[in-house]
Structure formats: C-alpha cells, structure tokens
Amino acid sequence: MSVIISTMASSELGRVRVDLEAFQSELMAEFYGNYAGLKDELSTVPIYDRYPHLFSKETIEAIGKADMDAPPEDDRRWQRYLRAFSTMGYVDSVVKELTDRVNTWEARSTVTFEGEDIPYRMVPVKLRNEPDAGKRHALFEAKLATMAELNPLLLERMASAHDTSAQLGFKNYRDMCSTLKGVDYKGLEASMEDLLHRTEGLYAREMNAVLQEKARLSLTDAWSCDIPHSFKGEEYDRYFSKDRLVGAFFETLKAMGIDPGAYGNIMIDTEDREKKTPRAFCAPVRVPEDVKLVIKPMGGWRDYEAFFHEGGHAWHFGSTDRRHPAEFRYLGDNSVTEGYAFLLEHLVTDKLWLKRYLGFEDSDDYVRFALVNKLMFLRRYASKLIYEMKLHQARVTPELGDVYRATLQKGLKFRHSERHFLEDVDDGFYCAEYLRAWVFDGQLRAALAEKFGEEWFLSEKAGAYLKELWSYGQKFNADELVRTVGYIELDSEPLIQEIERGLTG
C-alpha cells in the first residue's frame, strides 16, 4: 500500500488485517460453545484482551486516513469494511464485560413456573407449546418478572454503547451505524412505512383470521406471547418430520448440482442439549474452512424454516472463495448472507418444492398460513426499525419502553410489554439488515425464476449461478448484487406483490 500513515505504519495496519481473522474465529467459536449449550459461561473478554490493537482509536484513525487516500476501488472497499469492523468492535470492546454478563445470565437463569425451573432460553419454546391461554399468560408474566434482573444490565450496556459512539465523534449511535455501513436508514424507514401502509388492511384481516382459528382470540385482544402458539401449525407436522429434515435439505442441494458431501467444511449440530438455545444459528468459525450449522429440532414446519435459513448461511460461507481477503469473507453487508438464507428458507413455503420433496400435494392452506406469518414478521421488523430510529438517537431510559410498546402495537395490532424494549433489540441496527435481506431475496428469487424457471431449485445451472454468487463472500453489498441479477436498485415491490398475490388470489 502506497499510503503513508502518520499514526500507524503500513505494516501494523497489515497486522490488523491478518489478526481480524484470528479474532473472528475465536469469537465465533466462543459464541458457538455458549449458544450450542456446550458451556454455561460466555467469555469474550479474554478474546478482546488478546487483540487490543484491532479496536484502538489509533487503528480507527489510521484506517480512516487510508480510506480517504487509497485510490483503487478494492482498496477503498476493504478499508471501508475494516473501518466499520474496528469502530464497531471498539464499541463492543467497551461493553464486552456487560455482554458476557448478559449472555451468562441468560444461559444460567431459570423461570420458576408451576414448581418447575424452566431455563430462561427455553421459555419461548414453552410458550409456543402451551395450548392453555391462561397458563401461557402466567408463564409470560413469570418471565417478565425474571427480566427485572436482566433489564438493568441491558440498559447499562446500551447506554454505554451510545456514549461510546458519541466519544468517537458521531452524532449518535444511529449516525455511527449509518455512516460505517453506508445504509440510508431514513430512506429504508420511509420504504417500510409504505410497506406498513399498503399491507395494513390485508394484514389485519388475515392475522385476525389466524388468531381466531388457532387461539380463539381477536387480533386486538392477543398478546405477543400468544403469537408463537398460534403459528405452531401442528396440523401440518406430518409433512415436516424431524427425520426428514436434513435429507430434504441435502436432496435440494443435490438437485442443483451442489454436492453436500463435498463440503467437509460444514458441520451440522442437531444434538438435543438442555441449555442449547432453541433458536437455530450458523457460526462461521473460519470462512470457509469451519462453518457450524446449529439447530435444536422440535418438530414441525418451524424446524424446516429455521434449518433451511441457517443452511443458506452455511453454504454461502462454506462456498466463499478462500483467496478473498478476510474483509470479504467475514465483514461487509450482512444483508447479503441473510438474503441467501431467506432464499433457501422460502422453499419451505413453495408449493412445487413441497410437493416434490415432502409429498405435500394440497398445500394451499399451509402456504397461506405461512405467508401470513411472513407478513407478520415483515411488519414486526419494519416496526422495530421505526422504534430503533428513535431509540438510537436518544438517551436510553426506561421510558423508551412506552415508545417500544406503542410502536410495535401500532404495526402489529396485538399487545406488547414495554419490558422487552431492549431485549428485542439486536446490535448495529441488524433489523435493517434483515429488512434489506428480505427485499434482496424477493428480487433474487424473481431473477432465478426468470432465468431458470419456476422450479429453479431443480436446475444445475441455477446451482452454478448461486455458487458463483456465494463465492464472492460479502465483497459486494446487497445494492450491488441486485444490479448483478438485473435490477436497478433494492426495491420492495416484488416482495409486496408476492404477498398480495398469495393472500388475495
């Protein structure tokens, strides 16, 4: 690199680029161990302490100066990604002790209900499986009472992250995320407000129908704890057996000319451990050499949806070209990997795929049911974005709980507790990355159908096309990739039209 950096030698910046991979690998391995139920304690502090040079103010300054001066486009790209990594990592390093305390608390805590000590992370599963509304609400209240210990930790952590972003010279946490990630959150918020407006009547009608049928509740009488049970979909379980889960996924890949047996780098963890999080996840420990796909199968369509989603992550990371620098293998726009995850997840609601791989001949009712669930989640994340736009430009106080409750209730029509106002927030405006990913997925699927037919998932040419996209890792952002597949820009129109067709046709 020809740039002369006054605060840090080029060789030192090169060391940062090398060490970021070692840091990411250690961090992912630690999160995998805790979330997979292999260890109670999350211990990230020693990892951060081993790599202090990655997140120093001197490093951030040096990368920033290199970013301004470097002429080649690729240099500017990796330097932008590295600047975001070091800056956000600096914030994470400031709150690392609190992060460990929060995750350790979640792994070790229990909720006492009807004489049983339920692991805190398993409460959502219990709520989903509880058919009695009275018991469901009592358990929900017991969880909320337990959160009296958690919320002060979350509040302290979020306030510290906000203060740190200001110390780094940003207007607020929102400004920091927008600047570093290059995402226009105000523009995205406007797009999501349009989605909420256009789908409001359709959502209210269809969601109310599901709740009336599944839980004997009206939309406005329901609480957030009633929703998972209402979408359990037990009547469809016979089509979504636990034994068929991995096989159906592998057969889908094979039909596209993607041999899962050739991917010795992807480990699938389906073991049923007591303290394993019920939420499936993918841990890219070393990209592409060591990728872990983790799920705790419970049975039913949710398992398939979650497994195919995380499978999209796993095969994206596992197919990434090793020759890319670490910045393109680990960093960049997470809307990309989430888009690939949604792409494969969507197959679980595709009538043609359901018939071919699960023998689900008459899937109309199920697909409609799943589409209402998808619309609910879209509106939920759109509402979360609107809330977080307020949260991340203000001083964090418990009073924001009322803003959270009002915003989510306006978008979803069912009742929420203000006590979830921080637990329901992912770092770094990740809700925006989910929303951008849904939009990207809608456009990518439309392009695949146009290029390879409605049953693109049976085409080896489509598989080769996807493998090429996956090989880029996250070098390109979602805005660039939609242009690659034939669109001018990210546009939610295909997504909205798909939902409208599915629920009005």
Characterise the protein shown here:
A hairpin with a 3-residue loop joins strand 4 (281-286) and strand 5 (290-294). Helix 12 crosses helix 14 (334-345). It contains 21 helices and 5 strands. It has 2 domains: 10-173, no CATH class; 185-504, Neurolysin, domain 3 (Orthogonal Bundle). The chain is mainly α and 505 residues long.
Question: Which secondary structure elements does this structure contain, and how are they paired or packed?
Answer:
Elements: H1 10-35, H2 45-50, H3 57-69, H4 73-94, H5 96-108, E1 110-113, E2 116-119, H6 123-129, H7 133-167, H8 173-181, H9 185-215, H10 227-230, H11 245-255, E3 266-269, E4 281-286, E5 290-294, H12 301-319, H13 326-330, H14 334-345, H15 351-358, H16 364-391, H17 400-412, H18 430-452, H19 460-471, H20 478-484, H21 493-504
Parallel strand pairs: 3-5
Antiparallel strand pairs: 1-2, 4-5
Descriptors:
Neurolysin, domain 3, about 5% strand, mainly alpha, 21 helices, about 65% helix
Shape: globular
Radius of gyration: 22 Å
Helix coverage percent of residues?
A: 55-70%
What class would the helix/strand composition place it in?
A: mainly alpha
Average pLDDT across residues? 93
Number of domains: 2
- What's the β-strand tally? 5
Termini gap: 58 Å
* CATH classification class of the largest domain: Mainly Alpha
Q: What is the strand arrangement across the widest sheet? A: 3-5-4
Question: With helices defined by DSSP (H or I, 4 residues minimum), what is the helix count?
Answer: 21
Might you state the CATH topology name of the largest domain? Neurolysin, domain 3
